[in-house]
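As a next step, we paired sequence with structure tokens, yielding the entry below.
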Amino acid sequence: MTASSPQLRPRARAYQVFISSTFLDLSAERKAVCDALSDLNAPLAGLGVCLIPVDLQGGADTEPPLDVCLRKIEQCDLVVTLLGHRAGWLSHDGRSITECEFDHARVKGIPCLAYVRDASVPVLPEFVDKDEKHVTALNRLRQKVDESVKRDAFRSTEHLRGHIFRDVMSWVFSDSGEMPRLAEVPTMNALAEIKKYWEALRSGDVKAAVEVVRSRRFTLDMRRFGTEFVHRELLQNLLELDTLATPTLVTTPHLRSQMLLQFLFEFSNSIFASAALAEAKELEEQIDHPTYSFNVARAEGRLHRDCGKALPALKRMLRYARATGDPHCVAEGRRAVGDHYSHRRVHSRARRWYWLSIEAVCRMQEICPHCLGAGFLGLADQTWECQDCRMTDNAFLKAYLIGQVIPDREMQIRALLGLSSHRAAHNELDESVACAVLAARLAKEARSRNEESGLPAMLANLIAENGRSAISEATQRVGDNAGDLLKLVIDRYQLNNFVRSLGLRPSSAGDHW
């Protein structure tokens, strides 16, 4: 090739990767595989490689499900098989769909990567097959996998995602001999959100740049590639906090004030937080609204919570909260004072302020269930520290019942986990495990594809404090009766009519079951 000859780019290659597993118990793991494949596309794009996940978890088809799956496999270049403790639906010959998919891929000569959930990972009872036919089918598939391919075990979705990064990357380059060229691809420049940010700035569209920096997708991209600091750096860049020059990017007072508040609440540990706070306070006169001043004072109280400046800021916050005339601000302000004393471990004062927050909410013409539930959660933590055990259970249960009304599964999860820890402290392990199981079920619905939604995460603290053997035995005793055990606790505290007595109604700001 002469110096004047055009450089030939590698021929683009698109690989379809079929994801094979049962659905109900491994939905988070399936998404982890899809996310890993999508994340790999950023650095591989510069080499002309594209990975296309084939996940048949959703959608409808006129053909039988097994026929659809087998036909799709024939169009794919790689199969990723995930095994848990369920066989799923069985065909007429006693094989599961996953087994049929694995067999079909082997017959067609399509390479397979197989991953098995580690046996030490606890799972919900309904995600473990018990009848003989399904157990036999699952064991047969495991044996086939062990005899046919080198498989690996995973303990979490993050663990599995790491396997996919390693093994799929190795598979892509196994025959091409182009592995060394991967080092030439600048990962950060390959991220679509980073490109969008710089293009927006170059075109002068600051609003679009702000939307990128504040987006959830951008935050996740930074986390996946271990570059979370980029989020903070770009936000600082937009606000120009690291220079003495007059800001030129975000100059509109309203937008700048919102960005400063975001920086203060998300990166309060930054060395530029004090500068952001000072500027936010300077903008108070221009914004001239008690709600903004309330948020600035609340941020100042949080930033200085370890020194004497916190209490004066919190007093200003309460004054601005009253000035807004908004009961939500009053309740949130009082709860912020409770949070302050909780952080300082002055539990009796924290408990008092959480009660005041609850009282403010209850004086509303229509009670806000979000504020009420948050107040009871804070109260429960403090009454526990004050060794008022009956009130602790009472407050956690009320927060749980309020969370049911909103509905807010995250509130329910937090209340159940708090109640679980408290019951464990009183050696009521069956009730404790029952609460953890219910929390895991709610988390499975609320964040079905999140690595923190499984039973292992819910039982982790219990195992650490009580030992694996004791929690394993309690889990076996609880079985499918977790809901009945919690109902007995609710009956014990006579809270069956609590929600009705307050006239609480579902909230439009709930998480929409």
User: Anything to note?
Assistant: The two ends are 63 Å apart (CA to CA). The longest strand covers residues 13-20. The longest helix spans residues 27-44.
